[in-house]
Amino acid sequence: MRPEPTLPYEFTAPIHTERLRLRLMVESDVDDIFAYQSREDVVRYELFEPRTREQVAEKVATYATASSLAIEGDYLQLAVELPTAEGGPRVIGDSYFKLSSLENSRGEIGWTLHPDFMRQGYATEAARAMLAVAFEQIGLHRVVAELDPRNGPSIALCRRLGMREEAHFVKDLWFKGDWGDTGMYAILREEWLSTAQIQRSPTG
Ligand SMILES: CC(C)(COP(=O)(O)OP(=O)(O)OC[C@H]1O[C@@H](n2cnc3c(N)ncnc32)[C@H](O)[C@@H]1OP(=O)(O)O)[C@@H](O)C(=O)NCCC(=O)NCCS
């Protein structure tokens, strides 16, 4: 019998990981998010150009209400929040998850961090929490990541998550003024469940 995913999935409470909190974005996050989405070095391999504060505010308003995964194309774009020594928490990046195919029980994952918070394992920690939702709570069959094959840190992150390279499409998209390649990485539910990563699932 084909296992069916448990849908709809409603994002009703933040996900706590060892060091982070993943939650829906709110209007007061705009400055933190603008701090990295406005940077050319951060968005180099993203599908968009550096954003103005107004563009970030518009996006945050849209993402803030995207809390349900029910039909194909539904997504979560969560704020990745870190407590700071100075007091209040700070949004250091965002974590993306899309229900990309209902028929084939497939999701898609994505990530961005502020450069001040890169190379400390935060993206890995946030992505593991999203994969735990995808595989352990929703029960999807497969999760993919599409990336620019020049994006070394993103490829390294896929590999840390146990994702395998499955395709390299050559000049398959018009990307920032030129034809660009796409790399495709993926992990199956059974692969996720068979790794020790299940022990690092979010606590709720
Ligand atoms: C892609 C991106 C999120 C990866 O970020 P990252 O900081 O390299 O990834 P992590 O936060 O998981 O950190 C991993 C690094 O921290 C180290 N690390 C330290 N503590 C760690 C821990 N507890 N767990 C895992 N790794 C840890 C790892 O060894 C690794 O170091 P290395 O880069 O020297 O190998 C980041 O480069 C980014 O935001 N880029 C711009 C946006 C972008 O291109 N997004 C993707 C579009 S497809």
Question: Summary?
Answer:
The protein is of the alpha+beta class. The protein contains six helices and ten strands; from the N terminus they run E-E-E-H-H-H-E-E-E-E-H-E-H-E-E-H. 26% of the residues lie in helices and 35% in strands.
Quickly list its features.
Aminopeptidase; two-stranded antiparallel ribbon; binds coenzyme A; eight-stranded mixed β-sheet; 204 residues; alpha+beta; 6 helices
Tell me what you see in this structure:
It is a single chain. This protein has 204 residues and is α+β, with helices and mostly antiparallel strands. The chain has one domain (15-197): 3-Layer(aba) Sandwich (Aminopeptidase). It has six helices and ten strands. The protein has helices at 30-37, 40-43, 53-63, 122-138, 152-160, 189-193, and strands at 9-10, 15-16, 21-23, 68-69, 75-84, 87-101, 106-113, 142-147, 164-175, 178-188. The strands form two sheets. An eight-stranded mixed beta sheet has the order 2-3-5-6-7-8-10-9, sandwiched between helices. The protein has a two-stranded antiparallel sheet with strand order 1-4. Strand 2 (15-16) and strand 3 form a beta hairpin. The longest helix is centred in the middle third of the chain and has 17 residues, at 122-138. 32% of the residues are buried. Coenzyme A binds at residues 42, 45-46, 110-113, 118-124, 147, 151, 153-154, 156-157.
